[in-house]
Design goal:
Oligomer: single chain
Shape: globular
Protein name: GLUG domain-containing protein
Order of helices and strands: EHEEEEEEEEEEEE
Number of domains: 1
Largest sheet: 10 strands, parallel
Number of strands: 13
Number of helices: 1
Organism: human gut metagenome
Pfam family, one: Glug
Strand content: 35-45%
InterPro entries: GLUG
């Protein structure tokens, strides 16, 4: 389903615990809800369609986007102020045409990617945060902490509980940043990346806890 720049949040009911996203507009609405403060802690979201955020990204020999003026920029799902803290199951669907261009010199603009910050839910029953079974292709991400699927994972070290995880995801994207990884840019505090791979281009200026996948 091709995104036309609109968002739909009519599917959301705060009392629910399972939500199905059936259009690109609903997927954009999901991003809007998270970025306005709905963490989805203890809730599960499934993606039921392939989503095309832009038709085609064009690149030069240095992997820079040459048609940025034709593209709809993407605001990552989850920020340092309003992280995503639920479970997202892509059900092996594809998100393509992601164009995310943030400040790559400082962390001020937050983590860059389809998702920005994934952070544990902070209670013993609903603490796990997961993004799984998702493919991100034909995309470009640039930011201080940058990854095709998620810019940053932040879990908890308290008794090994409350991990943030990206599982069984693949990326085929150009990813650039200070801490950049093909799938995840930066991992911290009991976070895990499992069963993931990337076949695109990664340009990173830092080691340490960069995602590296």
């Amino acid at each position: 389903d091709e995104w036309n720049g609109t968002s739909d949040i009519s599917w959301y009911d705060g009392s629910g615990t399972l939500f199905q996203l059936e259009s690109a507009a609903q997927f954009a609405g999901f991003a809007e809800l998270v970025n306005s403060g709905t963490s989805f802690k203890g809730k599960t979201i499934t993606l039921e369609v392939n989503v095309k955020l832009n038709r085609e990204l064009k690149f030069d020999a240095d992997h820079n986007v040459t048609n940025a003026g034709e593209l709809r920029p993407w605001q990552p799902i989850g920020s340092s102020t309003h992280p995503f803290s639920g479970i997202f199951d892509g059900k092996n669907h594809v998100v393509s045409g992601l164009y995310c261009e943030l400040d790559d010199k400082t962390s001020t603009s937050g983590p860059a990617g389809l998702f920005g910050l994934l952070r544990y839910g902070s209670d013993s029953e609903n603490g796990e945060t997961v993004v799984k079974n998702l493919r991100v292709t034909g995309s470009f991400v640039n930011g201080y902490r940058a990854g095709a699927v998620a810019g940053e994972l932040d879990g908890s070290t308290y008794k090994g509980q409350w991990p943030s995880m990206v599982m069984d995801c693949t990326g085929d994207a150009v990813v650039k940043g200070t801490s950049a990884g093909g799938v995840v840019g930066y991992v911290d505090n009991n976070s895990r990346i499992e069963g993931c791979s990337h076949t695109g281009y990664v340009e990173s200026n830092a080691g340490g806890r960069a995602g590296g996948v």
